[in-house]
Write a structure and sequence with these properties.
The structure is a single chain. The chain has 660 residues and is of the alpha/beta class. It has three domains: 239 residues, 3-Layer(aba) Sandwich (Rossmann fold); 195 residues, no CATH class; 198 residues, no CATH class. It is 49% helix and 21% strand. Strands 13, 14, 15, 16, 17, 20 and 21 form a seven-stranded mixed β-sheet that branches. A six-stranded mixed β-sheet has the order 6-7-8-3-9-10, sandwiched between helices. α8 crosses α18. The two termini are 35 Å apart. About 5% of the residues have low confidence.
């Protein structure tokens, strides 16, 4: 079932070549317990490496069940080693960071067996060698003889057809050596067992066949097997498929065993991510706060309507617009600047505004205490006006109600209004009004809100005639962009008017600026990420150097190149996750500190001065940003680890196994 024909393996020696195996032909069948003996350098280990597919640079033919392996790919050789061959090493070659049962179960996991079933099978195999009680220990807690039995259990756990053992007793005392060979002889009944050994006494005692090599040639074969008449079978083993969870375990174990280095590396990498976090939070926070503040100042649904020729909008046009379904309400802008002297002798420059059309204006800075005017003799005043009437110099959130209690029901006598016209002072009495409401957010404005008709009357009285401006204010009940565009077309085509939304115009400009700033800042921060990527690559490369022998072991028991790549990419991903987690925690902590300082020393004083009009979060943490950065960090770290990971997969397994 296993045969070699005219096998030659050459090695370069200076300018010439030497044959480690020279034109060797041999056949091995089920039931053979073969010892391959000979002096050092006779070609024993080379023959074993060729038979198990670790060394494929050969001349000649190696056949498995009649199938020529010369066209096998690296993946197919991995399948062969994992499913067909059990390999026992002289140095045991167990993986120290795995438990005993995990070492035994590893070949099964390459076959895609789930962890639970693999553990059951591994413990069954350990029981056969008397070590099931030690399944949860580590190899460094076991003796040399126990570790060799663990290695045998690992070789047998997949029920392979061929067992290959390279000096399996070399590190054991005589008694343990005999026990190991006796066990291998027992399992050779239904498979081929090939043992490479220097111990000719063991060979004579236990072997059913002894093959002696000298200078790469067979000089003696005690039970020569002629050419086997084997019906060719299709090699259709289950492809080795290392579970992702196992890759993560290898990565986690390596990170844990080198925690100081891992934390140091992750902390350096985190610096770049912290920069991105803070810059993004800053831009998003300022942008969001500006938009929110603008939303308080300019309602999102408020539109200004202009005459294309910058002339007065006629009353008939205004009447038509007021009947459009798209408009909630529309008003003339007829506010007038006046100065008046109150009954208490406080001189105030103020604005007269009509209500209820400006009810949104009354509440956009704060709440309305009291009520709206219900007749021509009632008014609502701003907080600024109330402060001046009652000589209140400062106000905070708790004193709004108190100030209103002072002015509620007060009759404000606007004794005179004066302005200059052609150097002649004109004085007009405006009468007395009862205060029925106060707006809390208008701390700096001296405003008086009256019924709409009364404003028109006063405007006419002041100016001799009503002067309408060329704009009207509309509040749209529609929000769909296509509907708004249709409304703009209606204004233009039917009324020669144009519409504009101040909120959209301003905020879109702010957002564009902030996005451009964010791109620039992230571009600068990305320089540190490039350095971080180089650092991650160096760390993974160092990890590979430290674990060369482990790579050789995994390859020998059936790991595909992609499995090796996956292990180190998983380690890269761990570094990315760890660094982004550190960055997230530190960024959120720094965000809290900066926001606290900003609130205490900037926002609170400004809010007191502006009676709550100013509200801003300097840094605005975003779950979306955190998720994106963590995802990017993991992917970026894996990308940085790609080159060393592929180098690890291309390592020569034979040389790797010799690495101390």
């Amino acid at each position: 079932m296993l045969s070699v024909k005219n096998l030659t393996r050459k090695y370069k020696n200076g300018s010439s070549y030497i044959n480690a195996v020279d034109d060797l032909t041999a056949n091995f069948k089920i039931g053979d317990f073969v010892f391959v003996v000979g002096a050092s350098g006779s070609g024993k280990s080379t023959l074993l490496n060729v038979l198990c597919g670790l060394d494929t640079k050969i001349d000649g033919i190696v056949e498995i069940d009649g199938i020529d392996t010369s066209e096998f790919s690296k993946k197919e050789w991995a399948i062969y080693r994992n499913h067909y061959v059990g390999f026992i090493f002289q140095e045991y070659n167990l993986i120290e960071h795995l438990k005993v049962w995990e070492n035994v179960a590893l070949p099964l996991m390459f076959q895609g067996v789930n962890r639970k079933d693999a553990k059951v099978k591994a413990i069954e195999e350990l029981k056969k060698v008397g070590l099931d009680k030690f399944a949860s220990k580590r190899p460094n807690q076991m003796s040399g003889g126990q570790n060799q039995r663990i290695a045998i259990a690992r070789a047998l756990v997949t029920n392979p057809k061929v067992i290959m053992a390279d000096e399996p007793t070399g590190a054991l005392d005589t008694e343990l050596g005999h026990k190991v060979i006796q066990y291998l002889k027992e399992v050779s009944k239904d498979r081929v067992v090939i043992v490479v050994s220097h111990d000719e006494e063991l060979a004579e005692t236990y072997a059913s066949r002894v093959v002696t090599l000298e200078d790469g040639k067979i000089i003696d074969d005690t039970a020569f097997v002629g050419e086997l008449n084997i019906q060719t079978k299709e090699v259709s083993f289950k492809r080795p498929k290392m579970k992702f969870s196992m890759m993560l375990k290898f990565a986690k174990n390596n990170i844990s065993s080198r925690m100081v280095r891992s934390l140091f590396t992750s902390s350096i990498v985190a610096i770049g991510y912290i920069s991105i976090f803070l810059l993004t939070f800053l831009i998003m926070g300022i942008n969001g706060s500006i938009i929110e503040t603008l939303g308080n100042l300019v309602p999102e649904d408020q539109y200004q309507i202009y005459n294309i020729e910058n002339t007065e909008i006629s009353e008939s046009t205004m009447s038509d617009l007021q009947n459009l379904e798209e408009i909630e309400n529309i008003r003339y802008d007829v506010s007038e600047s006046v100065s008046f002297t109150s009954r208490l002798g406080v001189q105030v420059n103020t604005q007269l505004y009509p209500v209820p059309y400006d009810e949104a204006l009354l509440t956009q800075f704060g709440e309305l205490l009291g009520r709206l005017p219900e007749n021509d003799n009632e008014i609502v005043i701003s907080l600024g006006t109330a402060q001046r009437i009652r000589n209140v110099n400062s106000v905070d959130e708790d004193s709004y109600g108190y100030i209103f209690d002072l002015v509620d029901g007060l009759v404000l006598n606007i004794e005179s209004i004066s302005y200059e016209l052609l150097d002649e002072e004109v004085v007009t009495s405006l009468g007395s009004y009862t205060i029925v409401g106060m707006t809390t957010g208008d701390a700096f404005s001296n405003s008086i809100y009256l019924n709409y008709d009364k404003v028109l009357e006063l405007s006419e009285e002041i100016n001799g005639e009503i002067t309408y401006r060329t704009t009207a204010t509309a509040y749209l009940t529609i929000s769909d962009e296509e509907d708004i565009e249709a409304f703009y077309l209606l204004l233009r085509d039917d009324y020669d008017l144009v519409g504009d939304n101040f909120f959209t115009a301003i905020t879109s400009g702010v957002e564009d600026f902030m996005l451009k700033a964010l791109k620039w800042f992230i571009g600068i921060a990305s320089i540190s990420l490039v350095v971080s990527g180089i650092l991650i690559g160096l760390v993974i490369y160092t990890s590979i150097i430290e674990r060369i022998k482990e790579i050789g072991i995994l390859t020998a028991i059936g790991a595909k190149p992609s499995n090796i790549v996956g292990i180190f990419l998983a380690e890269s991903a761990f570094i990315g996750l760890l660094s982004s987690s550190i960055a997230t925690v530190l960024a959120l902590l720094i965000t809290r500190i900066i926001n606290s300082l900003f609130s205490n020393f900037i926002e609170t004083p400004l809010s007191l001065l502006s009676a709550g009009m100013f509200e801003m979060t300097l840094l605005s943490p975003s779950v979306a940003v955190i998720a994106i950065v963590i995802g990017f960090s993991i992917v970026y770290s894996m990308f940085a680890g790609l080159i060393p990971s592929f180098k690890a997969a291309r390592l020569n397994a034979i040389k790797a196994l010799r690495k101390e």
